[in-house]
Design goal:
alpha/beta; Rossmann fold; 9-stranded mixed β-sheet; 8 helices; 24% helix; globular; Acetylxylan esterase; signal; AB_hydrolase_fold; PET_hydrolase/cutinase-like
């Protein structure tokens, strides 16, 4: 795919960061998820922390060692020549909503090897009584996401049977969505001149065997997700809450008869859903 040099954000990746209200809030459920708030672009209830490793950087709820629940997982792939610090704000945002994010420490993520390594790492940590992650990682609910080359990697990793949903953001072309057997949200930017929207639509068109949604964010270019994720924060969080946490209010934004994003022309320049996503 076309090489992409992303500007590295200046935020310190190794330091713990706080967001939202104090940690320890109860887990949302399908029955109550929409009752508290439907602003998925706002910080979630968990304070957050970061752990930088050799292969994987983890973004997670800070109180995970004392958590009374298991936290779903999101594995992340970076764009070409980029590292997780570039996407730190988005990954911390997901962590504030109760996810454990395993971001691959590689600027060449297309094969998905390092993303799968993040699942393996969390599997070991969850099983280790000496780890703060012991018994707190929900390995039955795992999503894959990434940007640009990492978006293509999310599709590649989506063929792994451990993955429950994929959310490629402006994915490069080096992937085959035919191998994915889980729901997909494919995001494009209306003004993206690196991964043009028609390239993302091609993945959507080929995804007729799975529930698939195509969303094109109005005014977004290829770098809108870098740093402050802006319009990408809310829909990505809602999608993962729907598929990994059973949030029915979030699910209604994309699937079924209602489709909240379908009526939001201020945010979306194009929304498409295949037949498996509309029933």
């Amino acid at each position: 795919m076309t090489s992409l040099l992303l500007l590295t954000a200046s935020a310190g990746a190794g330091a713990a960061a706080s967001t939202g209200s104090p940690a320890g809030a109860p887990a949302p459920t399908a029955a109550t998820a929409g009752a508290a708030a439907a602003d998925w672009g706002a910080p979630g209830p968990y304070a957050t922390a970061v752990e930088v490793g050799a292969v994987t950087t983890l973004y997670y709820p800070r109180d995970i060692a004392t958590s009374d629940r298991r936290h779903p997982v999101i594995v992340w792939g970076n764009g070409t020549f980029a590292f997780p610090v570039v996407y730190r704000d988005l990954l911390l945002h997901w962590a504030s909503h109760g996810f454990v994010v395993a971001a691959a420490n590689t600027p060449q993520s297309n094969l998905g090897v390092s993303m799968r390594a993040g699942i393996d790492l969390l599997s070991r940590r969850d099983a280790d009584p000496a780890s703060p992650f012991h018994g707190a990682v929900d390995l039955e609910h795992i999503g894959a996401s990434g940007h640009s080359q990492g978006g293509a990697a999310a599709i590649v990793v989506g063929a792994d049977p451990r993955i429950d949903t994929v959310l490629p953001i402006q994915p490069g072309p080096l992937a085959d969505i035919d191998g994915v057997r889980v729901p997909a949200l494919l995001l494009a930017g209306q003004k993206d001149s690196i991964v043009f929207p028609f390239l993302v639509k091609a993945f959507y068109d080929d995804a007729d065997h799975i529930p698939a949604v195509y969303g094109e964010l109005r005014g977004a270019d290829h770098f809108t997700v870098v740093g402050d994720p802006g319009p990408f924060a809310a829909p990505t969080t809602a999608w993962f809450r729907a598929h990994l946490m059973g949030d029915l209010t979030a699910r209604a934004q994309f699937l079924g008869a209602g489709c909240g994003i379908c009526a939001d022309s201020a945010t979306w320049s194009d929304v498409r859903r295949n037949g498996l996503a509309t029933g």
